[in-house]
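Appendix B. One record, verbatim.
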Amino acid sequence: MRTTLLPRVLRHVARHALWARGARVVVALSGGADSVALLLVLRQLAERGDVTLAGAAHLNHRLRDEADVDERFCRTLCARLDVPLVVGSAPVAELARAARCSVEVAGRRARYAFLDDARRTLEARHVAVAHTADDQAETVLLRLLRGAGTRGLRGVLPVRGAIVRPLLTCTHTELRAWLAALGEAWREDASNRDLANPRNRVRHELLPLLAERYQAAVVRVLARTADVADAEDALLERFAAEGAARVTSGGPTDLTLRPSGLAALPLAIARRVVRRALEAAGARRAPDLADVEQVLAVCRGPAPRAVEAAGLRVERFSSDAVLLIRESPPPPAVTLPARTLPVPGEATLPELGPGCRLMAEWPITRGDHIEGRALRVSLRGSVPGPLVVRGRQPGDRIRPAGLDGSKKLQDLLVDRKVPRRERDRVPLVVDATGRILWVIGHAVDTEASATAAGDDVIVLTFEPPVVPGSEVS
């Protein structure tokens, strides 16, 4: 054991480039067998010049009566080995209650925050944690049972930021035997026997059953599966990055996917492209397969539709444009009541913001009016009055210039990429018959436009609110 453990760790370190030779590393020390073995392994590697052991770090979680005993054990061990030790304390149970999460999640958050602080205190580049092949096997099984794909089956990674895991090729049994051969003691954590914890059930019930009845080397088989999945995931991610560059644009608040380009990709790559897009657009939680399939369904769908995925709104605006939008909390619903627009005269629209108004000028002789501005239009002076400005209503249609026939207002706003939350804020000008003359900022009725026959015109000018960011465009 003594002759094979260190070379195996060194091969793992070199293969995954855990650290450069001589780099300063801090050991996360709980007092358990695995972390004690990790400390001794790095101490031996430091004696060979392979690494610089900057020190150890121990966090007292204050969850067990024995926690103070564990802390004293770590202090005594580091003093004997002449290794600097940083000790911290965190009220994990209180943190869990405050954050409304499990004790395990709160403990993990507190632990990694503490370890990063300790790394800075000891001026180290890396923090080594004592995850083993058994931990890897447990993680793979838990994720498999929860429905993970290739990405999830990578398990815990050898390197993640400043965190490195040198013992992923070693088992709990090997490390305990190695410590026993050295005459070293360690602490046992009774909470590791609590079968209310899913990981403990996998550790003490499922893995032993699999080893006894199906595959004696199940731990190494699952750890090897994670290693294979990691390499394959890296390749697929490279293909996904290339695919994303071809089919996505914009972001991060309004990222666009191009469905035709997405459809040309293999399904495995398309799913990864969508996941990357959800993350880039600011997903409010980690996207899962259901989220990805929701987006793909919108992309494949024959008609515009909108769904929620990973906390984002996913909306199809045209045959080849799907938007992923991270929305702020929705603004209060706006209802634009019907108001008469005097001609000449004006109507204020306070619901849209301060200073918002619509002005009508008449009579104006043809040739004197101004054309070409999205918020200013010229109508035939003969349109039947009185004119009314209002918000949209079910069944609204308009006959926009360049179109033979009428079009649903809903379809017009979708084509113009007006976000769903803004559509009730678009003012409409209608005549006495209810015909929509102007969808402000977007379209004018083809027959009412002053480009048709007529000697005089009505010029309508819309002034948006003065509050920045609340304009109707």
